[in-house]
Design a protein that fits this description.
With about 280 residues, the protein is an alpha/beta fold. Helix content is about 35%, strand content about 20%. The longest helix has 21 residues, at about 75-95. The structure holds NADP nicotinamide-adenine-dinucleotide phosphate.
């Protein structure tokens, strides 16, 4: 059994911790306010931005997951979460003489700048034009060039229980999609995030990078229309496309998950339809 640290133990980290504790691993969940961790996940109260708070990490860690998220959409906050916090943790592990056999960094599909609905995979160019992707890429490189064997997992948009902003906007009749070219979006259910990370922890010789998205990149309009039907809500409204708005920076690409599937991972929710149905069932 392994000794596992989940640094940034929030929405996904908690679901991962639950699974790893059920597998009988020793699991610690690190966050600034570790108040509501599940049974079997031991709390570590520390701030990744404050190196001195990382001096008392659990010893002899075998596997480390880094899942801290930025406190807001600003470059400085992204740098703090995805670059400085990761560096602080890697340095703390090094100073303590720890030799984890695997360190995971959870990144995002924001590292891709593709905007024309192209298919992308782990070998596609990453030339982010926005600080969000640039800082994540910086964190990825730091891990992969660092002292421990690293694995990067780039998740698409994460949804699941209680992450229902999209549902709420559809239900309230506020959902919109941009006219013109289809805009492809990529997503993954929280349980598949946790399931894929758990799976990759057990893969003997993992690749350095995996895309963590479900099996069906889908244009935004189709997703909203499907949700409106499932929720019995008004269909989404078409609005004029504007360059440079939030939709544009959100990208327009289709992410392939073949490497993850090829490693043997079986999705619990292979498309948004199964995943959203489960979330709707939990809401009602
Ligand atoms: N949301 C998405 O759609 C999406 C898509 C792709 C990738 N991702 C990535 O997936 C990962 C997991 O996402 P999530 O939804 O599970 O995030 P989350 O619920 O916000 O959890 C992140 C955790 O990090 C902790 N944290 C933040 N700053 C910290 C610090 N300085 N020191 C210690 N702990 C800190 C927070 O707890 P405290 O506040 O108690 O410290 C929080 O519990 C993140 O890396 C995120 O960027 C998310």
């Amino acid at each position: 059994m392994s000794r596992v640290l989940i640094a940034g133990c929030g929405y996904v980290g908690t679901a991962l911790g639950e699974r790893l504790a059920a597998d009988s691993h020793s699991v610690w969940g690190l966050r600034r306010r570790p108040l509501s961790l599940p049974q079997g996940v031991l709390p570590v109260s520390a701030d990744l931005a404050v190196p001195s708070s990382l001096e008392g990490l659990p010893s002899d860690l075998d596997v480390v997951f880094y899942l801290a998220s930025a406190a807001g959409r600003e470059d400085a906050l992204y740098r703090a979460a995805y670059v400085d916090g990761l560096r602080n943790l890697l340095e703390a592990l090094g100073k303590q003489g720890q030799r984890p056999s695997r360190v995971f960094f959870v990144s995002s599909t924001a590292v891709y700048a593709q905007q024309r609905g192209e298919w992308v995979d782990e070998s596609s160019p990453t030339q982010p034009t926005h600080f969000t992707g640039a800082r994540l890429l910086e964190g990825e490189r730091m891990l992969l060039e660092g002292p421990f064997p690293g694995v990067v997992v780039r998740f698409g948009g994460i949804y699941g229980p209680r992450r229902t902003r999209l549902f709420d906007s559809v239900r309230a009749g506020r959902a919109e999609y941009a006219s013109g070219r289809a805009r492809f979006t990529n997503r993954i259910h929280r349980d598949d995030c946790a399931g894929a990370l758990r799976h990759l922890m057990n893969v003997e010789s993992p690749d350095p990078i995996y895309l963590g998205v479900d099996c069906e990149p889908t244009d935004e309009r189709s997703v909203l229309e499907w949700l409106a039907g499932a929720l019995g809500a008004q269909p989404p409204r078409k609005v004029p496309a504007r360059e440079g708005n939030a939709r544009a920076t959100g990208g327009n690409k289709r992410c392939r998950n073949e490497r993850l599937l090829g490693s043997g991972y079986a999705f619990r929710y292979p498309t948004y339809r199964e995943g959203y149905r489960a979330v709707i069932a939990e809401m009602t």
